[in-house]
Amino acid sequence: MPGVIPSQTGSHVVLPTRWVVEGLVDPRIVAAELQSVWEALPERGRQEIAANNSTGTVTTARDIIALSKLTPHRGLPGVPDPTRMPAFWDDFVREHKARWIDERNACIVELYKEGWTKADVARALGIPSSKVSTVLSRADVAGERIGTEAQARTQRRRRHGPANRS
Questions:
Q1: Domain coordinates of the chain in residue numbers?
Q2: Residue 55 · residue 83 · CB < 8 Å
């Protein structure tokens, strides 16, 4: 890749661009390095990133820069400015957040199907009940609760008639 180009005034060394060099690194190695930075971040930093839609704060950016030795195959900025984080970091955080949201949504559906009320699910996960309703609506399970005591009573009434209420 590197080369020497002779000219009338001497020789010039030709080096590949940073993009070319970074493109030669296996993406799985880079992903593992970024994951190690994520895991080494203080919990406060991960929460700030989640709260600020992937950008974090100046404090978080400082924490990330302090961990740059964990990413030898990708350069992290030297200036603690959350708006100047490289695209590969933003992509990593976005993917991480999407996986977290998918897991949370699956948990919402599972708890609801187990018989939890929407309010109980919201309280347990620390999210608004409107978010629980939206997730259940998108998952198309709003009417599929199973395992609730009220549902069991309704089933017994249907089988045994209204006289046998318990």
A1: 24-85, 98-166
A2: yes
Task: Note if the pTM is more than 0.70.
Answer: no
Q: Which of 111, 104, 60 is nearest to 85 (CA)?
A: 60
For tokens 């919201």, what's the residue? 122
Backbone CA torsion sign across 44, 45, 49, 52: positive
Each residue of 66-122: pLDDT tens digit? 998 998 887 787 888 888 888 888 888 888 888 888 999 999 999 998 888 899 999
Q: Label residue 92 exposed, middle or buried (CB < 10 Å: 0-12, 13-18, 19+).
A: buried
Long-range contacts of 19-26 (CB under 8 A, 24+ apart): 22/73, 22/74, 25/73, 25/74
CA distance 31 to 92: 8
> Which residue's structure tokens are 């409107």?
130
d(CA 123, CA 88) in angstroms, rounded, equals: 35
Name the residue among 146, 139, 137, 162 with its Cα closest to residue 114: 146
